[in-house]
Design a protein that fits this description.
This protein has 333 residues and is α/β, with parallel strands linked by helices. The chain has helices at residues 42-54, 72-84, 119-123, 144-147, 163-173, 190-195, 198-203, 217-225, 239-242, 267-278, 296-308, 312-331, and strands spanning 15-22, 29-37, 59-67, 88-94, 129-133, 137-139, 156-160, 181-189, 230-231, 251-253. The protein is globular, with a radius of gyration of 20 Å.
Length: 333
């Protein structure tokens, strides 16, 4: 386990710059929301931010955005969000050197995903608790209940992974508690987190062999907590873009390969597109899956969804490409 000098966790060692756009109105209850993203993913995060704002208009929202870098254009659009929705947006550009010894398990991910491990030490300047959201989440109802939720002395609350994933992942990590959560939505109690030195414990997993893990920050946090976190109701992290929705979801999360900015195959995908349209970032208009052999099953889902909407021609198109791409996939061409 890696050890650190006392000054390693100083805020000045982690923050390169801070940009604050403050347009909040006084007198309302205040919710703090955090994200960690790279510059390319900021437009996707933008739709998530709008979903939070649209479904919590009786609250003052403060967004804490942690990034390894951002363009002037994206910063300008974040300011547009702050002005239009009367909220506060704080952009933290992080020094990524302290994260360098964390492993990268999935090539498309960057080490900015590990920023969630350090957030409490920065956000505690503003609040004693916050809700962390992955950029590919969408809020579809009020956050009142989760914000007020009693964590019963735990530093953090998160939703359990599905039973099959829990068995596999907890077993792989040799977790004694046999529990495993998804870290894409977390309610964090900062004083309790700090008291239990969660950040320090998480960073001690730097330099561990890559093969020890299946994921990145999520595995690290599960190793730290080993089931001692509070488990939130499933409605606060509904997986696979709402596939497990029971009619009272609060936060939908596109945990799988399919994303709502790539295609529209459900009502939640359509709702995400609505928030994308409301945001200052370019409106995404494509609704069909990309015609690649590995996407053959997406055309079946898309065709069936369009048929439900009354578009029989789209259904036939979808099933046609499902058949063609499936053959190509099986033949490797």
């Amino acid at each position: 386990m890696k050890e650190f000098v006392d000054t390693f966790f100083d805020v000045n060692n982690f923050i390169v710059s801070k940009l604050k756009y403050e347009y909040s109105s006084d007198g309302k209850k205040e919710y703090h929301i955090t994200y960690n993203v790279n510059d390319d993913f900021i437009p996707i995060m933008g739709a998530s931010m709008i979903s939070v704002l649209e479904n919590n208009q009786d609250a003052t929202l403060v967004f804490h955005i942690f990034t390894d870098g951002y363009s002037k254009e994206n910063a300008k659009k974040i300011e547009e969000v702050a002005k239009k929705w009367n909220c506060t947006c704080i952009i933290y550009k992080l020094n990524m050197e302290p994260f360098h010894d964390f492993h990268i398990k999935v090539e498309r991910f960057s080490r900015i995903t590990y920023a969630r491990l350090y957030m409490p030490k920065i956000v505690k300047e503003y609040t004693s608790r916050y809700i962390y959201l992955d950029a590919d989440t969408m809020c579809v109802a009020s956050l009142d209940k989760i914000w007020e939720m009693n964590l019963h002395g735990a530093p953090m609350g998160a939703v359990s992974e599905r039973a099959s994933a829990v068995d596999y992942r907890a077993g792989y990590l040799h977790l004694k508690g046999g529990k495993y959560f998804n870290d894409g939505v977390m309610l964090v109690d900062i004083p309790c987190w700090e008291q239990q030195h969660i950040t320090e414990k998480a960073f001690s997993y730097q330099c561990e062999p890559r093969k020890r893990f299946l994921g990145q920050s999520q595995d690290v946090l599960n190793l730290v907590f080993d089931g001692t976190n509070f488990f939130l109701p499933d409605d606060y992290n509904v997986y696979d873009g709402g596939e497990y929705d029971r009619g009272h979801s609060v936060i939908v999360h596109w945990t799988g390969r399919r994303k709502p900015w790539q295609m529209v195959v459900s009502s939640f995908d359509e709702q995400w597109r609505k928030y994308n349209t409301l945001s200052p970032w370019p409106t995404i208009t494509n609704i069909r899956p990309v015609k690649k052999p590995e996407n053959y099953h997406d055309f079946k889902y898309w065709g069936r969804y369009r048929k439900e909407k009354g578009y029989i021609g789209d259904y036939l198109t979808g099933m046609f490409w499902y058949g063609i791409l499936k053959i190509r996939y099986k033949l490797g061409i």
